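Long-time lurker. I teach an intro course on protein structure, and each term I like to show students one example going from raw sequence to a predicted 3D structure in token notation. This year I'd like something fresh instead of my usual example. Would anyone be willing to generate the tokens for the chain below so I can use it in lecture? Attribution to the forum is fine with me.
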Amino acid sequence: MSHWIEVKAHLTSAPLDWSAWDAIFDNHGVAGTVQTDNPPTLSGYVGPGSEDSIEDLKAALLAYGAASVTADPVAEIDWAEAWKQFFVPRRVGERFMVVPSWTEYEPLPNDLVITLDPGQAFGTGDHPTTRGCLELLERENSQDKEVADIGCGSGILSVGAGLLGAKSIVCVDTEIVSCASTRENFVRNNVTGQVFNGAGFEPLPQDDTYDLVLSNIISAALIGIAHEAARRVRPGGAWIISGIIEANWPDVLDKATRCGFTLQDFIHEGDWIAARLRK
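-- Reply from a regular --
Happy to contribute to a lecture. Here you go:
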């Protein structure tokens, strides 16, 4: 099969908070959704080879209250262009503006413009997990700090750290496409950093430590790397974490606390938590 499948949930009314619906798609392996308010719909795209997940996804959406769910083929070349109309400039926090690379934007005097083309990598600023990380990064500031981004996706967080004046940046991701996307977005934003393919901190030199570590990954992965994160973050430094579904937050915080971190602040948006932990 050479086509993507658009799975679209048709709702009776637009919810005040779409995050629970987003989570259903995410839990069935569909990262990123497109919503419309009139009529109220939420769409996700299933790629070739993943068609077996469609029926389970449809059942979950109907069980949650969708009026109906459709699944229609979309030519992959059309999808590659069509999704771009939904990625528009977005303000995150006080200063960050996330702007698609194909869009013109006139920045305000204090704007930090992240010019982004995520390609197939996660991270456009549209998801609460990414927004939460960027807002906490802005609060933390990274001026003259050495930063590690574990699970870098599109590189959006590392670019943000670079624009805030980070001294050095290293990035790690398990996906080759994410590593490529991060390198490309570094060039777009005139940010310098090293990008490694691998899991967790493994590709990085064993003795290297950092002022700030960023990790927008799933809860289980955060729990898995918490001990190593505690070893890698310098005293007084910070670990900014996200990708945490609300139900998993107590477990993540408990593990981080037992590893030597203290909670400084957090952002709760919909079903998602992002937090800043201090070493």
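Some talking points for your students: Residues 87-278 form a domain with the Rossmann fold fold (CATH 3.40.50.150). The longest strand covers residues 233-245.
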